[in-house]
Amino acid sequence: MTINDDKIKFGLRISIIEGAFAQIHINLTGGLCLTGFALYLGANVFQIGLLAAIPALLTSFGFLSGILVNRFKERRRPTVFASGIARGLFFIPAVLLLFNYKTGIGNFLVLVGLVNGLLTVANNIWTGWMSDLVPKEMRGRYFGIRNTILGFIGMVVSFTGARLLDYFKGLDQTTQGFALIFGFAAISSTTAAILLSQQPEIPITPKPVALRQVILGPLTDKNFRKFLWFIIFWYLTSGIASPFYLVFLLKNLNLHYSTVALYGIFAGVMSLIFQLLWGRAIDKFRSKPVLTINFLCVAFLPLLWLFPTPHFLLPIWFDAVLTGVFWPGVNLALFNIVLSLSDKEEIKENYFAVFTAVIGIGGFISSILGGFIANLLKDFRLQIFGLTFINFHLLFIFATITRLLSLFFLKEVQEPKAKPTLYALEVMGDYAIRRLSYGKELFLNTIRFLKPR
After folding, report:
1. Are 368 and 49 in contact (CB under 8 A)?
2. At 140, which CATH number?
């Protein structure tokens, strides 16, 4: 069963608008604001690891997505309900903080876990919903455009939120600052839920499914198992360092919230450009070659974090630019390759459930290990060539090594109709050289034209 083209176009438009309001919530309740609030509550490095670990573990709730779709016989209602409740939970800390009640870090970790558990269910169902709604031949371009728009909005929201936090911190009213931010995020999420309820869906004919089928069905796919080995190794190893990049900026480099937000803006500006380019590359070459090229590049980024000091921040800004260039390619290709490997309508949600569960379990273990190792090595200091290396630096080095090793697992994954990675790299390199050559000629001709005769 299908719906007409007009409804599909309407659905694609409303998804971008809904995503904009959801992005506001994401940026005001995650990343900088989430880590900043945890530090404000007095969290230590182990608890920061828990902050990343608990939500990661709760992604195992994704197995419920396939069951809910079969129970409701549609995707819209369970997605709207789960996402609306999850994001709306941030009304709780907003109200408590408004009355100057500072909750404990333990209670906040429970809240974050509940939010992420429900969102995992919603996101899995939403992904299956959107993979049917967006025509296959334009998935890369559409999600590239959507992610670019949402990235711009997220960039503006993050910086605005950071400026507000700095402002209230300067007034010694940090509690009220977080109350305002979390309250506005919750209101935006309510708007997103209302819009999502208006998005059309492709009718489905669900079949009864047991939890065992949800888990074992995708695992019978040999190629999907190879992909999972790549994900498992990546998240179990390089994820050890993930919770501590923002902590390093806020505590070790002593940066203001707004300065840290500028890091996101640098990355966001580049992402606005390259999101579209990687989307087109995925449509042309498929996802695996794009993922391989970008993943190889991001493997070296943690090494840039070995050199910045409170008085030398250039490596951080350099990392921000490269993050904006290559991470959009990783994220977009990763999302699309799962779509490519799970093009079986009747068990689509099951693939995403297993995928997110593996990410969650790997993220949980690596974050716990990261917090444990960082806490164990909290007194580590090593002076080399005038630079001081601490516990976080060891984790950053480890992340680079393991990301490179992950590529050996990715090499074994086969994606339907994917072009060879070297071919894709050659074509993209040739295109880049031609564009640079065109720009050079245009510049030289302009100089010649303006030169006095």
Report:
1. yes
2. 1.20.1250.20
